[in-house]
Amino acid sequence: MNGMGRFDQAFYDRAVVAAERPASQDILLVTIDAPTIESLGRGPLNPAVHAALLERLGGARAVALDFDFSAPDGAAPDSDAVLARAIRQHGRVVLPAMLSPLPRPTSVQPPVARLGEAAAALGFANVVPDADGVVRHATWRAALRDGVWPHMALAMLEAGGEGDRARRLVSRLDASGVGGIPYAGPPGHLRTVSYLQLLQGRVPADWIQDRYALVGNGSEVGEAYRTPGALPARGMSGVEILGNMIQAARDDIVIRPAPNWLNALACALPVLLLCLALRYLPPRGALLLTGVMFVAVLAGAFLALRYVQLWFAPSAALLGLALSYPLWSWRGQETVLRYMDHELKRLRREYPPILGEARSPALGTNWSVEDRLDQLRQALTRVRNLRRFLADSLDGIPDVTLVFDAGGRLQFCNRAALDYFRGLGVRAPRNGQPAAWLMEKIVADADARADINRALHELRPDEREAPWSLDLEVLDYTGRNFIVKCAPIRTDEGTYAGSVVTLNDITAIRQAERKREETLRFVSHDMRAPQNSILALVDLNRGRQQDAGAQHEAWTRIGQLANRTLRLVDDFVQLTRAESLHIGQARVDLTALLLDAMDDVWALAQARGITLEAPRELPQAFVRGDHALLRRALTNLLDNAIKYTAAGGHVRATLEEEAGSWSVSIVDDGVGIAAADLPHLFQAFSRVGPTARADSGAGLGLAFVHTVASRHGGAVRVDSRPGRGSTFTLGLPADLAEDDETGD
Ligand code: ADP
């Protein structure tokens, strides 16, 4: 987890480079470079030369002589003594020791005793590159069998009087004493002078005074190490690494690897957070968040390195994040597909195909997404068909049907409903309209409306199982009778989702009922009354000695009553026939009919002393219809005119064409009709005016005329004034066919 894999190393190097700092002016590198070698010769320098150099560095805060002094100089044994003297004289010189074996040292090899004893401090100076050859870490302090050894950088601080800084740094390291080197810059970053330059005294004194002087081989002469971010060709000398370490220690920064538990947490937490967020995000958001988390982990690792010098290896977190998204997508897709399969199966089970859809093959378990989409498409087509099917079914219902949602707002209305509203003269209902508003347009009775509204808005517990939540008879504004029924709609889970309201037009039934009532009344009274009178008369005359006059009187009365009954029955039968008979389409000449009808009533008119007249020249007036019914209608009108006209009066018939129809008018100068009676004159059983006349009927004659007229597509109207006479006009559509064939 903290393995510094190749990716982590690259990231670490970039982060270290990004955190570079200006070089400290307190550190001076004194390196043996090409000109030095040229003038002093190749190979280890004579210790006496070092002694001379030390003299030049007399003002330095501390001096590190980073050369191998582990063996006495065989060529010039005395010179070691010269150097030892110079070291002792300087007093703040640090010499290197070598840890061995690497990388797990167990012992340290100090410089030759003479020099070692003269030095102010000793420190190990090993440089240990990582497997890829880059020097990232150093062992700042090594606990060996023979004691704890500091790194030369810390020994320098100790010698320079800044031992507290060295101790503070060490205290922050773990037992291994290993810490990352926060390089201040690339090779060549620190102030560097050449050994020769210094030896010749060509270095400004204030570069030396109170500075840390580090003397060693330059990178082009000695070992050159790769450092983070540096090109492989440009290595850093061991002495510059030492300089970087001194600067870091003085700045109190050392890069520590995060403890394993913290690193594990830092890797797991982003992945966990992403997994949680994925549950709630749409796929696009999830992808975006994954990218954001990626950047956040990298930024977090960088910031931790830069500001708290803690190293978190980000690769494990990044790998976790990178895997989370595809894994989550895969699981999500599987779940969706499984759910889809389940629902498709359910749909298939619950709704067998309607409207002749093709039956799709059964679902396979290893179907591709495309196959399933195909299935879904088919299923959706079926759902759409189902909707169409329902809408068409509702449209096919002849009753007004309105569907409301749970809030009482219109969701659907069928064709009958649209027609009905059009008939009412109200704007067609639209979806979303409140039920209360619609009901106000239909139902006049406020109580009934309240009942309907209640049924549409809630479902009482006792109604949960009932098929209807309302069953009510109401009267609409046009006077039509309706049965209003509300049926609750329930969701799959059984909750109330709305209502279907049907308005069943029962006006015809109610009318038939009223008619039956009237008929019963007629039969029970008007037909029975003459019979009773007959019986009474018969009783009266039975066994009684009577004179011829009285007997004649009685027989006349009996005859009248019997006639009246007969006529009533006759009228009734005729009216019923006129209402129900199929009307033929024969071509009929109204003039001929009118003349025939006048012949029928001629005798009656004669008997009553009434003049019956018609124009001498009448046109041929063809209509289509039933010969017998029309003739009887005309006879009825003439008959009434004669009956309700006093002796000596006139009854006149006329025939004329107006606006495509023939009008026959029967005009009399009889008793006339009161204006108040005119509106219901043509209703069955309505008798107006004085009814005590022996020859008055049951009020069926005009009803018959009216029925015949309307069934022939015509109309009858009356114009009358009491005492002046009446005019009844029968209008029938003219048959304008050219041929003069008279039909049967
Ligand atoms: P009825 O068989 O009783 O005559 P009708 O339907 O023919 O019934 O007439 C209904 C009523 O209309 C009559 O009772 C009568 O009072 C009135 N009526 C009909 N025709 C005339 C008329 N020409 N003049 C005056 N009153 C009439």
Automatic annotation (TrEMBL):
Key word Metal-binding present: no
Subcellular location: Cell inner membrane
GO function term, MF aspect, one: phosphorelay response regulator activity
CDD domains: HATPase, HisKA
A GO biological-process term: osmosensory signaling via phosphorelay pathway
InterPro entries tied to this protein: BphY/WalK/GraS-like (IPR050351), CHASE2 (IPR007890), HATPase_C_sf (IPR036890), HATPase_dom (IPR003594), His_kinase_dom (IPR005467), HisK_dim/P_dom (IPR003661), HisK_dim/P_sf (IPR036097), PAS (IPR000014)
Reaction(s) catalysed (UniProt annotation): ATP + protein L-histidine = ADP + protein N-phospho-L-histidine
Span of domain PAC: 468-518
Limits of the Histidine kinase domain: 522-736
Signal peptide range: none
GO CC list: plasma membrane
Transmembrane region(s): 261-281, 286-305, 311-330
Protein's membrane topology: Multi-pass membrane protein
Keyword Nucleus recorded: no
Keywords (A to Z) from UniProt: Kinase, Membrane, Phosphoprotein, Transferase, Transmembrane, Transmembrane helix
Main enzyme class: transferase
Pfam families (UniProt xref): CHASE2 (PF05226), HATPase_c (PF02518), PAS_9 (PF13426)
EC numbers, comma separated: 2.7.13.3
Identification of the protein by name: histidine kinase
Organism (species): Bordetella genomosp. 13
